[in-house]
Amino acid sequence: MIGNQGKIVLNHLQRAMVAEEKQGCCNTGVVGGFHLFLKGILSRLGQLEQDGDFSVLKDITHHYKDWSPLQRRQALAHLRRFLEEQKEPALSSQIDLKQDEREPKEPVETTDFHGPDSHAEDSHDKERTVRSNPSRALQYLKGVGPERAKFLAQLGLHNVKDLFFYFPRRYEDRSLRGIGELKDGEVATIAGKVVASQLSRGKIKVVKLSIEQEGRLIYGVWFNQTFILKQFPVGTSVIVTGKVRWQQRVPEIQATDIQKSGAAKLAEIIPVYSETARLSSKVLRGIIQGVMDQASEIFPEFLPSEEGGRWYSRAQAYQEIHFPQSFHSLGQARERLVFEEVLFLQLAVARLRAGVQKDDSPQLKDGEQLVKRFYDQLPFELTHAQKRVIQEIFRDMAETKGMARLVQGDVGSGKTAVAMAALLMAVGSGYQGAMMAPTEILALQHYQSLEAAFRPLGLNVVCLLGSQTKSERDKILSEIAYGKAQVIVGTHALIQESVQFHSLGLAITDEQHRFGVKQRTSLQTKGENPHVLVLTATPIPRTLALTLYGDLQLSALDEMPAGRKPIITRKLTERGRLSLEKFMDEQMDKGRQVYVVCPLVEESESLDLISATERFESLQERFPHRQVRLLHGRMKGAQKEEVMEAFQKGETHILVSTTVIEVGVDVPNATVMVIEGAERFGLAQLHQLRGRVGRGSEQSYCFLLSDTKNSRRLDVLCETQDGFKIAEEDLKLRGAGELLGTRQHGLMELRLADLSRDGRLVEQAYQFTQKVLAHPEHYVRVWQECDQFFSIENVGLH
Ligand code: ADP
Ligand code: MG
């Protein structure tokens, strides 16, 4: 057994192995070469563990540099197994060699994961306590122990239930195949008998087993794993999985797995879990498999029989999603779980809304005069869409049933003017109106434009930000509380407890998708049931809207202000930079302004990232006669304000920034948008960024700089300006949670559902949600499970 020092060294090694594998086993996982790192580890171990046997490590260290990436990968897999054995000899060998690929419901002789059938009394007891409590810590599970429990915790797995939620990343098809049907390059599993074996010694030791299957031969090939010869001698019946190479008469299989085909029936579909340095997919599979028979206890059915009959039972679904009998049943299991997930989400959202929507909102209908004066001073005519949406809003605001309306309009469609009209209707009716924006920059922008438009009308507009000084803040807070401030703009500082409104009648949230459910609803709970309006530029597919907003009303701003020219969009590589800079110069000669957006400030996160600071400096050098300014998220509020203002006034020619300008910023004279490292952004985000130009009548341009070969998805942006198409592509590529900016908010994260593909299930869930909402008393069990699902403190309005 290895000592503590030795273990630390091995941990170190394992972490480096993960890095190396992530880099494709190119000997680059460690700076200076992975093989040299191995050498260092080896000599360290030699000192620490003088009687340890590290011949495997020695072999690999010796040859690593000369191997192909594939050979290296195999060697590392082998090494990993070896290391696990070094640390926990008894346990890991059982998992790896016996426990692994068994059919899930089969009783198993090893005791590490399946106690009761085959084991002594005390383990019975232990097992029973674990069973009766699904939230019992994992360390007490057989085969886990304190150390593994720690690693599981790092994956967010603390109890048995968590294990069920740790869904496989993918599945491997291990159905047995005939040699004749194998194709070159595929990964396949075959069964046969070892009829001959050979070992060719050279730099690399190649083990070759000749495996016969119904009169046909295939070679199983291993590199530097001579133990295979001993473990699977001639005459053994084996099952081998690996990549098929068929370039000669007899095919080869580069084996990643081999086992004796014994009596136990083998599972044909093997789940593959996301692994960490200390927990391989195999080990995870063993641990998860060990709790599968608790499924029916932990996940009792809650659907009433008339609904439940259409789906797999809950417990069955959880078992099948981990250890499917067939790909068909896997599909069924997934359907059930997606249905359930979407159902819970819809119920949670509906309840949130019910909690804030009562029938006593103020009737806001006396602002006509004020609104008319605002129209008269507007420098443009409203589009038909804007007029229509404003009417829809006014109709809602006149009712005591509070408004809950989502205005969806692509970037540049003029949502701000719509919001302004609504605010004026509220103020004209004697109430306050508030508008919340997701970033300080955007809040400031809104503040500036609202202030400019409303001051001539005699209104008092204030702005509340997180970064203000205490005295500034106190002054503003009191103005809000005493009603001196009629229109309030701010970031989520607005929803903090210290903010008391005098009479909040309308709450607007801009760029909705950037807020989580919780933040979104908190503004509504301020004041006496204000009317609620949300603005979003991200077109939300219908299915997603249903799920996220329940019965929220939708208004579409589906018309762009007249005279807009499509933005010319081009992909560029580094080579195009010179001509790009020349072009920027020409545009600036014409009096136009330029945005340059970079993915990150400072180089800390990754070496190849072009930092905004660096870009800023090089642009200053390149354009000594122009005003170049830098804007980034870590600047103070006042600093940001000053930089933004200078750009807005046209004093600054080039604004270099991080994505802080992503949403909402409005400078019509800026006609060029340059996006560095474009491949690092999501499509919807790029579309938003591009929307910062093309706001005036001049021709605008957007340049996507990207040096990755795989920048094909950027073509979507070059081809279309249609936010809907782009959002749909984005949804496909990134998943709904991320698109909605909700990953960090927990509540909204969908574990299985892919709302772009699961439209039918979302509709079905919607139908059922309506039933549950109509007669909540009939569906107590459903509500209970829903609470459990979100571990309720998030939702908290019940
Ligand atoms: P978004 O919908 O992206 O929030 P904004 O409200 O910022 O768009 O409007 C974009 C630009 O279009 C602003 O400069 C605004 O003044 C202008 N604008 C809004 N409505 C019209 C209109 N009907 N005609 C012309 N320009 C308009
Ligand atoms: Mg906007």
TrEMBL record:
Record-annotated Helicase C-terminal domain positions: 579-732
Gene3D superfamilies: Nucleic acid-binding proteins (2.40.50.140), P-loop containing nucleotide triphosphate hydrolases (3.40.50.300)
Biological process (GO), any one: DNA repair
Keywords: ATP-binding, DNA damage, DNA recombination, DNA repair, DNA-binding, Helicase, Hydrolase, Isomerase, Nucleotide-binding
Helicase ATP-binding domain location: 396-557
Stretches the record annotates as Disordered: 90-133
Keyword Membrane appears in the UniProt entry: no
InterPro entries (UniProt xref): ATP-dep_DNA_helicase_RecG, DEAD/DEAH_box_helicase_dom, Helicase_ATP-bd, Helicase_C-like, NA-bd_OB-fold, P-loop_NTPase, RecG/Mfd, RecG_dom3_C
Catalytic activity: ATP + H2O = ADP + phosphate + H(+); Couples ATP hydrolysis with the unwinding of duplex DNA by translocating in the 3'-5' direction
Presence of the UniProt keyword GTP-binding in the record: no
GO molecular function terms noted in the UniProt entry: 3'-5' DNA helicase activity; ATP binding; ATP hydrolysis activity; DNA binding
Biased composition annotated in UniProt, kind: Basic and acidic residues: 97-130
PROSITE patterns: HELICASE_ATP_BIND_1 (PS51192), HELICASE_CTER (PS51194)
EC numbers: 5.6.2.4
NCBIfam families reported for this sequence: PRK10917.1-3 (NF008165), PRK10917.2-2 (NF008168), recG (TIGR00643)
Similarity comment text for this entry: Belongs to the helicase family. RecG subfamily.
Its biological purpose: Plays a critical role in recombination and DNA repair. Helps process Holliday junction intermediates to mature products by catalyzing branch migration. Has replication fork regression activity, unwinds stalled or blocked replication forks to make a HJ that can be resolved. Has a DNA unwinding activity characteristic of a DNA helicase with 3'-5' polarity.
Name of this protein: ATP-dependent DNA helicase RecG
Organism of provenance: Desulfitobacterium dichloroeliminans (strain LMG P-21439 / DCA1)
Lineage of the organism: Bacteria, Bacillati, Bacillota, Clostridia, Eubacteriales
